Amino acid sequence: MEFKDLRELMVESQLIPRGIRDKRVLDAMRRVPRHLFVDDSMQHIAYDDMALPIGEGQTISQPYMVAVMTELLELHGKEKVLEIGTGSGYQAAVLAELAREVYTIERMPILAERAETKFQDLFYRNIHVRVGDGTLGWSEEAPFDRIIITAGSPAVPEPLIQQLSIDGILVIPVGSRYSQQLLRIRKTKDGTAEEYHTPCVFVPLIGTYGWTGDQ
Ligand code: SAH
After folding, report:
1. Residue 214 pLDDT
2. Residues 198 and 179: beta-carbon distance below 8 Å
3. Ligand 1 centre from 136 Cα, in Å?
4. Which ranges of 122-163 would DSSP assign to H, the alpha helix?
């Protein structure tokens, strides 16, 4: 089967039956070549229903989790988005299909470098990569209309709330080191409103406002 057909199968069997409804999200998942964001040896399982290792002890999230988080962001096309945890770059590419500009921060230089090369190869000109501690945000570019954290955090990093626009949306997996739940925060002029969504398992967010250490 061709990769294009595997993507369609992924959408039909993993995303639609589990409730992903946003047509733009489904179409972006049909377009982005996920197999190019994993190692060559894993291309044949790139569209399977699971997270995969990307080296350095990190993972590319399961397609369903990428779709859920993207749908929760309610993207219409004009947003400036901040992602924390570039990893393979796959989630950033999906966001780049649906928003105006994507700023993404990765703490591991080797992963950031690899992702940057992918974005160039695939002509994603609206993705900007930076190496650093994403829990501090990207103050020079703030505010952001949307913020997505793709690593598990003990709590919501305060600088990210500050760097979120009024009427902005932030999505983050919050919980213990080994299991979390997606939390969506909407910021209004009167404060923030929180709702919990899908349970999930992400690698830890390590930094000033995340977990400490490397284990
Ligand atoms: N969005 C990624 C999944 C990344 S896994 C994808 O689509 O492939 C989580 C990533 O977050 C890892 O690469 C990890 O190195 C990174 N990370 C962990 N803590 C971080 C921090 N404080 N700032 C930036 N990146 C961080």
Report:
1. 58
2. no
3. 14
4. 158-162
How far is 163 from 175, CA to CA, in rounded Å?
A: 22
The 10s digit of each residue's pLDDT in 110-164 is 999 999 999 999 999 999 999 999 999 999 999 999 999 999 999 999 999 999 9
Reply yes or no on whether the pLDDT at 213 is more than 80: no
The token pair at 160 is: 């990210």
Domain ranges of the chain: 3-200
Q: What is the pLDDT of residues 17-71, one digit of tens each?
A: 999 999 999 999 999 999 999 999 999 999 999 999 999 999 999 999 999 999 9
* CA 31 – ligand 1 centroid, Å: 23
Please choose from 103, 150, 208, 211 the residue to mutate so as to test ligand 1's pocket, defined by most ligand atoms within 8 A of CB: 150
**Token pair belonging to 176:** 């213990």
> Which residue among 13, 61, 88, 139 is the active-site one?
61
Q: Which atom of ligand 1 is nearest to the CA of 61?
A: 3
Q: Quick check: is 153 catalytic?
A: no
How far apart are the CA of 37 and the centre of ligand 1, in A? 14
Domain 3-200 bears CATH identifier 3.40.50.150: yes
Q: Please indicate, yes or no, whether the overall pTM of this predicted structure exceeds 0.90.
A: yes
Give the ligand 1 atom nearest the CA of 87.
13
> To 5 degrees, how large is the angle CA 118–CA 119–CA 123?
120
